[in-house]
Write a structure and sequence with these properties.
2 copies of one chain form a homodimer.
Chain A (H helix, E strand, L loop, with lengths): L1 H9 L6 E3 L12 H5 L14 H7 L3 E3 L2 E6 L3 E6 L2 E6 L3 E3 L3 E3 L12 E2 L4 H11 L4 E5 L3 H12 L3 E5 L11 H13 L3 E3 L4 E6 L3 E6 L3 E3 L2 E4 L3 E3 L2 H5 L23 E3 L6 E2 L6 E2 L4 H15 L13 E5 L2 E7 L2 H6 L4 E9 L10 E9 L5 E8 L3 H11 L6 H5 L15 H13 L1
Parallel strand pairs in A: 1-2, 6-17, 8-15, 9-10, 9-15, 10-11
Antiparallel strand pairs in A: 3-4, 4-5, 7-16, 12-13, 13-14, 18-19, 20-21, 21-24, 22-23, 23-24
Helix pairs in contact in A: 1-8
């Protein structure tokens, strides 16, 4: 919708059609976990703008419950209203997003083994939760974490299964451990290094079986990751990148003339590594749509890439990361130095200073910042965004130390936690 | 103390002496307003480390109640314990700070007309407040604002006098107006464009007289700004910069060999304008001490300069700024474009999104960001520090738009308020 809106704004006479498989456009999938927990009161609140709004106010010809089954160099085949229709195009924007990975575990097809992708999935899950007490969450990434928090909020018993030794694979082990403590404190039953091998039950799931044990459950959320939904791209013969997402250039063009790809289906560049990367998150997705729409309308704008910034919340704990983790950097053969410091979020004398932990990762030789991870009970957004802003510039640890960050007693100590971390890390560079 | 501690850490055998006029070192003057309001329970909480700590644990020879009356090229004359003593030095660090401006208004010498500089001033003010109901605050800058908030917290009637048409001279008029509304909502009686011409009363102040009227008060806080305390620097014959603070190079050296100046007495460079500037704030002051101490101990570190980042809070409202305001930029003859947008701090569907207002200032031709002002009920630190981090790199509005900022429903909308502002401002650049 970001691309469609942009084209229509710049070229009001363009005939812009949108085909959407589900019944909603312009909705917030990131809000689905909070819908489950009742933090968001109803499904319609997750819809930014209605289909009618786009049709009537923006002049975009939106087709919902319209599944694009095939596509060629100047047409799409759309299944809608029980019939198949063909539409011609001059320019095509592929925004098919990502789909949840469903590993071929025996029993995964049972009723009550759920994934969350669109609003309909959220509505169905919410309904099924009403009759569930013990809920399994398979996967300890962002979605698993947010679902777990919201299930605990509902009073459910949550069992989280992660086959790796720690949750949150984009965080380093030491930082992830801090998050795990928070989950356990709030009553989540955490099963680490425990691979799920089977879902048991009759028609409906009633058991999660792992390599180590068997656990009764009434419902299971699969949250083991997502993959770019490239089915249509492959039918079009689009080049996929090394990440298996659709290859795009900086203008969001694919390998096929007049075909753009944006959002979670599209590959981009990591500005820290300079390599191709696929980090499917909403802000970049929306900006890619803006860029594609602008270029389609005759402007010339480049999407520069991402650094991999993300934030979430697990109960009281805010969790942010940007750039490379230490483990990621080492896998990419960087010569890495890192530091973790514990600090407070306010001047010590100001009431209720909160604990915050900052981990910085840098290149040993040059001192260039590679990434940061921050967990704490407030102020994580400020610290993560500061580092995220610096990363594309090749800023060093020293640059961070000397960054002119805001200070007043209610907001930070005189030596901001980021600056303290940078100061300690500078020593390792000498 | 930052410089002294740094030298002593790197050169444990160095004979480091500190002379301090007041009875405290390593204290937090920024906390004094909160001491008045009772947010900080007692004066000792504003002392980070005691004199004994520095003497015994860090081996620094701290002299308190020791006023340096004169200095020459290898000595200082110190008045302490009722006597004058002479100490020789090889290296001298001048950290005399800033002093409150006391304009020559008739009656300004009356009892009950107060300034806040050190902890003793805070203690005295707190004592006098016990017998005051109506309190005048002259000056609507950071200190005036923080004092006003804390006086209202104590139940005092606060009258604020500002001779300019708006408070907060480092903010633009439109942004300052938002802050003024907050003050008025909380009961501050605001007198703008109203110059104080006299303080009336017998021994003790009982009246503020302005060009427009006369107001009964029991106490007055003067908070009309600060000046670098260069008395000693002038005795030493140090070069003052164009800002009238002590000229320093990037290593914090003054014009005289082996004499350094750091903190609020020292001039530095504004990284946005490239010009000399004097912006006396605590984080830069501490880092200057670190830099001077490092260089004295034989390292070679440069203090790059500041961009003028500051934050404060007035009642519920968080107020941040960095770089140049539109007014400042115009005074410096930049060809300026700017934008102000209103947004929310969380996804719209997430509970309790707060209002936030972002103003961006940029150079029209190049699109280079010159500054930002942000006011809102949460999340101001994150937005201000993001722009503060970008400013030294010559980042453009487009760079800000494409910054990979963190998003999750509890922390930000998908289009962060900063990104929305950048998007709108980009249009003015085409």
């Amino acid at each position: 919708m970001s691309a469609a809106s942009r084209v229509k704004r710049l070229l009001p006479k363009a005939d812009v059609k949108v085909f959407e498989r589900s019944g909603f456009v312009s909705y917030a999938p990131c809000g689905i976990p909070y819908l489950l927990g009742g933090v968001v009161g109803s499904l319609d609140k997750l819809v930014h703008y209605s289909v009618d709004f786009f049709r009537e106010r923006r002049g975009i010809d939106v087709h919902v419950h319209a599944s694009v089954e095939d596509a060629g160099k100047d047409y799409v085949e759309v299944s809608e209203g029980g019939r198949s229709k063909r539409y011609d195009w001059d320019v095509l924007v592929l925004a098919t997003g990502a789909r949840p990975v469903v590993p071929p575990i025996p029993g995964v097809e049972l009723e009550g083994v759920l994934t969350l992708r669109n609003l309909e999935d959220g509505a169905k899950a919410k309904e099924m939760l009403a009759r569930a007490e013990r809920v399994g969450v398979v996967g300890g990434g962002y979605i698993g974490l947010e679902v777990a928090e919201n299930l605990v909020r509902l009073g459910k018993k949550v069992l989280m299964f992660e086959m790796l030794p720690h949750i949150m694979p984009t965080l380093d082990h030491d930082v992830a451990k801090r998050v795990e403590r928070e989950l356990v404190e709030y009553g989540v039953e955490l099963h680490l290094s425990e691979k799920v091998v089977e879902f048991g039950g009759g028609e409906r799931v009633s058991r999660v079986v792992t390599e180590k044990g068997s656990y009764d459950v009434d419902l299971v959320f699969m949250a083991v990751g997502v993959r770019p939904d490239t089915a249509l791209a492959e039918r079009l013969g689009l080049k996929l990148g090394e990440t298996r997402a659709v290859w795009t250039d900086s203008r969001m063009r694919t390998s096929l003339e007049n075909v753009y790809a944006v959002g979670d289906v599209a590959e981009t560049v990591n500005l820290v590594t300079g390599k191709r990367d696929w980090i499917p998150l909403a802000p970049a997705a929306n900006k890619m749509g803006f860029v594609a729409g602008s270029n389609i309308a005759g402007m010339d704008i480049e999407f520069p890439g991402v650094v991999g910034t993300a934030i979430t919340k697990a109960f009281g704990l805010e969790i942010g990361r940007t750039g490379l983790s230490e483990a990621q950097a080492k896998r990419l053969d960087y010569d890495v130095v890192s530091v973790s410091i514990s600090a407070k979020t306010r001047a010590g004398y100001y009431p209720e200073p909160k604990a915050i932990k900052v981990k910085l990762v840098a290149e040993a030789e040059s001192g260039r910042l590679l990434g940061a991870q921050v967990v704490g009970y407030e102020g994580v957004l400020a610290r993560i965004n500061t580092v995220a802003a610096l990363l594309p510039w090749g800023a060093t640890v020293r640059d961070l130390f000397f960054a002119d960050l805001a200070y007043a007693p209610p907001f930070a100590p005189v030596w901001d936690p980021l600056v303290v971390a940078a100061r300690v890390l500078m020593k390792k560079l000498h």
